[in-house]
Amino acid sequence: MDQVDTSRIIEMAWEDRTPFEAIHRLYGLNEKAVIKLMRGQLKASSFRLWRERVSGRKTKHQKLRSPDISRGYCPTQYKHR
Hints:
Layout: H1 3-14, H2 20-27, H3 31-41, H4 44-54
Helix pairs in contact: 1-3
C-alpha cells in the first residue's frame, strides 16, 4: 500500500461518519486491519485518542447506524474554493 492510500485510510478512520465497511469496500481492510494500520502509523497517544473516539461509536459501523444516515460525510466537509 502506498503512502497516498495509507494517508486516505487514516483520514477515513478519523472521520466520524465514515464506517469501517466503507474502508473495507475501498481498500479491502477490515476493522482489525484498520486498527493495526492505525497502531503502526500513529503516535501512541494519537492511537489511544482515536481508539477512545471510535470505540462504541454507532456511525463507525454500518449495521449500527440509523437508516436516516445515507451519506458518509457532512455536506460542508469538502469545501470547494
